[in-house]
Amino acid sequence: MNRSRFVSTCLLIAGFVLYFLVNEPQTSYAMHIMEGYLPLSWALFWWVVFIPFFILGIRSLNKIVKEHPQMKLLIGVSGAFAFVLSALKIPSVTGSSSHPTGTGLGAIMFGPWVMSVLGSLVLLFQALLLAHGGLTTLGANAVSMAVVGPMVAYGVYRLIVRANGGQRLAVFAAAALADLATYVVTSVQLALAFPAESGGVLASFAKFAGIFAITQIPLAISEGLLTVLVWNWLQSYNAKELAELRLLKREESL
């Protein structure tokens, strides 16, 4: 292992250790919105919204795997990164929790549609194996974390790179804003389902978003920094694959 790779690996390990020390997981039984918390009509509505994006994601994922099988490892890394980070729980608004999402990394590499599949699988496994979230609210949770978050990450990354803002800045901003966007959507979902008696949906949204912001803004910043460390590590060990991904994106945009 050369010196640069050794330093990159040490920084990555130190980043994960610091991240888990600062964001120590606490007991919680929610994955964004817990099982049975949403009224049935809203739970079904968010499932209907989510399904088309999942279908697009399946098509995109199949295309990448068939045409570029060497990308399977990076796809697995993207899913594992999202699973590990989103397993951290900090109790927040009643029936919900704050936590990092980890979806920005995969969205940067493979685009938002692939993450609609990986993110929803992460949510499903955590609902079934860790009792975080549920099946009825999976559609709502997937829209916030697996659809909107990755779309924001991908859009922010592309904008900053095209503006020559620097790749590390683009990675940081994409991961952090994807995290924040996820909780903005969660706040909207809760506000629509439970409007305030005084002020309605807007007042309810302000309440939910305000409470989320206390924990989510520091989490978003730390997730952005950690994602930059992981990105640097990938550039050291998977430079060839990342170069192929950049070439693939250019061909698709033509």
Automatic annotation (TrEMBL):
<feature type="transmembrane region" description="Helical">
    <location>
        <begin position="73"/>
        <end position="90"/>
    </location>
</feature>
<keyword id="KW-0169">Cobalamin biosynthesis</keyword>
<keyword id="KW-0732">Signal</keyword>
<comment type="similarity">
    <text>Belongs to the CbiM family.</text>
</comment>
<keyword id="KW-0406">Ion transport</keyword>
<dbReference type="GO" id="GO:0043190">
    <property type="term" value="C:ATP-binding cassette (ABC) transporter complex"/>
</dbReference>
<keyword id="KW-0170">Cobalt</keyword>
<keyword id="KW-1133">Transmembrane helix</keyword>
<dbReference type="Pfam" id="PF01891">
    <property type="entry name" value="CbiM"/>
</dbReference>
<dbReference type="GO" id="GO:0015087">
    <property type="term" value="F:cobalt ion transmembrane transporter activity"/>
</dbReference>
<keyword id="KW-1003">Cell membrane</keyword>
<feature type="transmembrane region" description="Helical">
    <location>
        <begin position="110"/>
        <end position="131"/>
    </location>
</feature>
<protein>
    <recommendedName>
        <fullName>Cobalt transport protein CbiM</fullName>
    </recommendedName>
</protein>
<keyword id="KW-0472">Membrane</keyword>
<keyword id="KW-0812">Transmembrane</keyword>
<comment type="subunit">
    <text>Forms an energy-coupling factor (ECF) transporter complex composed of an ATP-binding protein (A component, CbiO), a transmembrane protein (T component, CbiQ) and 2 possible substrate-capture proteins (S components, CbiM and CbiN) of unknown stoichimetry.</text>
</comment>
<dbReference type="GO" id="GO:0009236">
    <property type="term" value="P:cobalamin biosynthetic process"/>
</dbReference>
<dbReference type="InterPro" id="IPR018024">
    <property type="entry name" value="CbiM"/>
</dbReference>
<comment type="pathway">
    <text>Cofactor biosynthesis; adenosylcobalamin biosynthesis.</text>
</comment>
<feature type="transmembrane region" description="Helical">
    <location>
        <begin position="40"/>
        <end position="61"/>
    </location>
</feature>
<dbReference type="InterPro" id="IPR002751">
    <property type="entry name" value="CbiM/NikMN"/>
</dbReference>
<feature type="transmembrane region" description="Helical">
    <location>
        <begin position="169"/>
        <end position="196"/>
    </location>
</feature>
<keyword id="KW-0171">Cobalt transport</keyword>
<keyword id="KW-0813">Transport</keyword>
<feature type="transmembrane region" description="Helical">
    <location>
        <begin position="208"/>
        <end position="234"/>
    </location>
</feature>
<feature type="transmembrane region" description="Helical">
    <location>
        <begin position="138"/>
        <end position="157"/>
    </location>
</feature>
<comment type="function">
    <text>Part of the energy-coupling factor (ECF) transporter complex CbiMNOQ involved in cobalt import.</text>
</comment>
